Amino acid sequence: MIIITDGLVIKETSTKENDKVITILTRDRGIIRAFANNAKKLGDPKNNATGLLAYSKFEIYKGKNAYSVNSAEVKELFMPLRSDLAKMALAQYICELSGELSPREENSEEQLRLLLNTLHFIAKGDRNDRTLKAVFELRSMALAGYMPNLVCCDNCKCYEHERMHFLPDTGIFVCGDCLKLYKQKAVFVGINVAYAMRHTIYSEMNMLFALNLDPDTLNIFERTCELYALRHIDRQLKTLDFYKIIRK
Question: Strand (E) positions, the chain?
């Protein structure tokens, strides 16, 4: 069976001298792990198109037990990322997170669009990388089925409260007046972070990254979105650890 689809290479692993295995977030089939024979040869047409962070058009053969790349044509390489270690580290982290959250054998157009748009803004360099990271984390969780309920306080249904808290285990807001009714771990977010989280979850994609947060709000927003993601994938990601080391 031949599959023709667009996709982004989110991971590559060398096997033999000139061969590798790549993990692709594809538009039509979600996550695919495929063999790319001879792709490490400089003269091979698949060389650039199967590299990490290459967005390419793929022709993939689906065999009985494995996928293999027949051909690949580059659409975008995100070159500015490759000359900035911090941006590259962030790109690798969001790719690893995508690999954890994106489906297999299912349409993943929204997940791919989110990842490509985030990489575009990281490469462009005119948005705060920490904001991009947090927005990606929270929106990715929603797309993966961990949609938080951020409309109002879970108990009294108030929309605005100066002492708004977020409960990462259940993905809900609870106001300061109702917090005593809940025994789960709560993160104080306040009203500005609550607005930022609502924007991230409920806005259209073309407005998703239009956030401009003051430093204090950004610190809480980033910490909360990261906590929510890590709480539900239930493991630490090495690329995140590396990004934090580089960012310091």
Answer: 2-14, 20-26, 30-36, 55-62, 67-76, 149-153, 165-167, 172-174, 187-188
CA distance 24 to 134: 23
CB atoms within 10 A of CB 40: 19
Question: Please, which residues bridge with residue 188 across strands?
Answer: 165
Dist CA 176 CA 187 (whole Å): 11
User: How confident is the model at residue 19, as a pLDDT?
Assistant: 87
Domain 85-148+163-247: which CATH number of 3.40.50.460, 1.10.1060.10, 1.20.1440.120, 3.90.360.10: 1.20.1440.120
> DSSP character for 51?
S
CA distance 93 to 9: 13
CATH number (3.40.50.960, 3.40.50.970, 2.40.50.140, 1.20.1600.10) of 2-76 reads 2.40.50.140
Question: Where does residue 155 rank: exposed (0-12), middle (13-18), buried (19+ CB within 10 A)?
Answer: middle
Q: Which is nearest to 8 in space by CA: 25, 30, 28? A: 25
Contacting residues for 193 by C-beta, under 8 A, at least 6 apart:
164, 166, 217, 220, 221, 224
| Tokens read off for 12 | 């590559």
Single pTM value for the model:
0.94
Mean pLDDT by 10 residues, the chain (248 residues): 96 88 96 91 86 96 91 95 95 97 94 98 95 98 96 96 96 97 96 98 95 97 97 91 93
| Angle at alpha carbon of residue 44, lines to 6 and 28, rounded to 5° | 10
